């Protein structure tokens, strides 16, 4: 067997694979959204040890569709409404495929000039569309979890540089809301902030961090000799999509000289819409901001953007006595080496798929799709409100609706399970004000109003009268 596939073999197999992809995107509604399998099903069907001899690509492709696909929960299904729904749009998929064939690892400029510069260009476009000031430096990470970890690491460097040198640790304290994503807690743990030094600030009646409670918590820690260093408000919390009051929180972080990291992983793209632009009011005070195109911007997982006004802190946090000889590059001023700003040395060419998405849809196209998603969410909430058996459980700010059957938590949990078991739609749940509620999150580029309304009828039909 030749060590590289021949061009003819590759072309034939690639055509088959692309035909499969196009059919899948056309027929995706025929697939159950939630995989109808049991734990261990795939493991039991695959050999327990790897093949001694290579196998024909046709057989691998067949097994992909017969064995692998049935165990896939279809995130790319227009009726995937769980967590924060997302999409691998056509242009995003093409960008991902082309990035795979180039196999660029742009740890430094020289190893991927186009990848490095396209990352700068696409993130600059996004920054302008989001209305963020010029001075923000952007870098792509795999996830908001990783981006958040880097932001908190830079915050730690700004507050206590001795940690990097000696590991000496003052009692650093980080503030986030009760409704912040647990990814922030874990990012803080990874950077060495003790779990007991994470302050989950109480929320108001609409699930927003309370600035008065934030201030009180900071004062209490200062009085106890601890060192507040970072505040992480969320724009679009995971449970309810609530928006923490950034202008007030920003003022507090300025007053106490704390790093302000804004988690806008889900709702950030909404700032492209004039009517939602205000969610980023106060962002000019932020030291760093996360926005995830792999959530609500039609870009295949994974791609998360981290903007920072203080990239030098990110670099300082990771700087060693000297750079290893095998990586030193003498470049000119314009040559950015992104790996200097991140723990991973290797970097995928992620900007390519973002560039495809931004160019294919354009700003107007993106705005239209997001606006539709928000409109569908309001239609759904209106339907929920019209059925006396149900109630809407949180303000509908973007494309997420939290709602519940006016019954026990067990009844709501069981309703959710019945809906998901049909394979027709997939929703998730959370707890708000002590009660279990269902979440319908719209984020797939193929979702139509009919998908949303049919799902409501499905829910009604599975609700006991
Ligand atoms: N922040 C918020 C508000 C989220 O909703 C999520 C995930 O849903 C995250 C952060 C973590 O995102 P990622 O999976 O990109 O790490």
Secondary-structure topology with pairs:
Elements: H1 7-27, H2 41-45, H3 57-68, H4 90-102, H5 113-130, E1 137-141, H6 144-159, H7 162-166, E2 172-177, H8 182-190, E3 198-201, H9 211-223, E4 227-232, H10 246-255, E5 259-263, E6 288-291, H11 293-296, E7 304-308, H12 311-317, H13 351-386, E8 390-392, E9 400-405, H14 409-421, E10 428-432, E11 435-441, H15 449-461
Parallel strand pairs: 2-3, 2-4, 4-5, 5-6
Antiparallel strand pairs: 1-7, 6-7, 8-9, 9-11, 10-11
Description of the molecule:
The protein is globular. It has 465 residues and is of the alpha/beta class. The protein folds into two domains: 105-347, Type I PLP-dependent aspartate aminotransferase-like (Major domain) (Aspartate Aminotransferase, domain 2), CATH 3.40.640; 357-463, Aspartate Aminotransferase, domain 1, CATH 3.90.1150. The protein has 15 helices and eleven strands. The protein has helices at residues 7-27, 41-45, 57-68, 90-102, 113-130, 144-159, 162-166, 182-190, 211-223, 246-255, 293-296, 311-317, 351-386, 409-421, 449-461, and strands spanning 137-141, 172-177, 198-201, 227-232, 259-263, 288-291, 304-308, 390-392, 400-405, 428-432, 435-441. The mean pLDDT is 95. Helix 4 (90-102) runs antiparallel to helix 13 (351-386), helix 6 (144-159) packs across helix 8 (182-190) and helix 6 (144-159) crosses helix 12 (311-317). It has a seven-stranded mixed sheet, sandwiched between helices. Strand 2 (172-177), helix 8 (182-190) and strand 3 form a beta-alpha-beta unit. It is 42% helix and 12% strand. Residues 83-84, 143-145, 181, 183, 234, 236-238, 263, 265-266, 292, 304 line the site of pyridoxal-5'-phosphate.
